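Materials and Methods. Structural model of 3-hydroxybutyryl-CoA dehydrogenase. The 309-residue sequence of 3-hydroxybutyryl-CoA dehydrogenase from Streptomyces lavendofoliae was retrieved and submitted for structure prediction as follows.
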Amino acid sequence: MIRFGIVGGGLMGHGIAVALAEAGFGVVVHDPDPATLASLGERVEQALERGGTSPDDARIVAQRVTAARTLAALADCSDIVVEAVPERLEVKHVVLAALEERVSAVTPVWSNTSVLSLTEVAEGMRHPQRLVGVHWWNPPYVIPLVEVAPGRETDHRFVQEACDVLDGLGRTTVRLGRDVPGFIGNRLQFALVREALYLLEQGVCDAKTIDTVMRASLALRWPAVGPMENADFIGLELTKDILDSLAPHLSARTGGFPVLDALIGAGHRGRVTGAGLLPWPKGRDEDVARRLDAGIRDNLASLRNTRSA
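The predicted structure was written out as tokens:
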């Protein structure tokens, strides 16, 4: 049985650990922050509870996740290492350099970067051929999609091995043909966010209206039919006509978002400060978390029904 080591025990690190442990794998997690490491067990248990795992099964799964106080201790017992540290190149370079001092040259390393170029993440590695981009979606123990991509120097044998392992876990695994910042999902997601911010800046509507339109239209369609299938469904001539008419009016901004700059400058950073694009009164964060979890599960059920139809 493969044993996984995860470097970084934060939001994604502990979530990936839960997903792997639920599949029966042993997982060792290291984080340089003692507080993060100390709370690992509690957060794993909370994730299992939110994921709907029965108490008896949760105890068994939680026992498969252990903490490693040092990177050396993690390296000694890991067949595959997952890098899940913050999305800053300098941090990833330091962690990967330290990791390569302690693991075999043939030990696969999976980076959970969600927006960085994997080729840039691999810069400075002695063995960049074993680095594979393996991007899980949050929460990893609920959302089945995992995006897998090579860097410029990645040996495709490691990519295939990663896909084989993930397929064996029952994940929805997609393999990219080449390295691209943001993989597929985040590029699509933040293209939509960019247009939403543009609509705000142009005074077309407020933030609440954007969310209402999204939840009452596109969000109802996309779990069943994706944008490519829908383009074929309505006809490519109509799709082209719409794009020819609409594309010149869409935002093409590549930097600088005044609406965000103004809010951040005023100290309104979203949920953590009580205000952002929307107000965040007490209790709204718990409500959003519940709705998000329930919505994902409902959509997953609908997706399964669609596939079996």
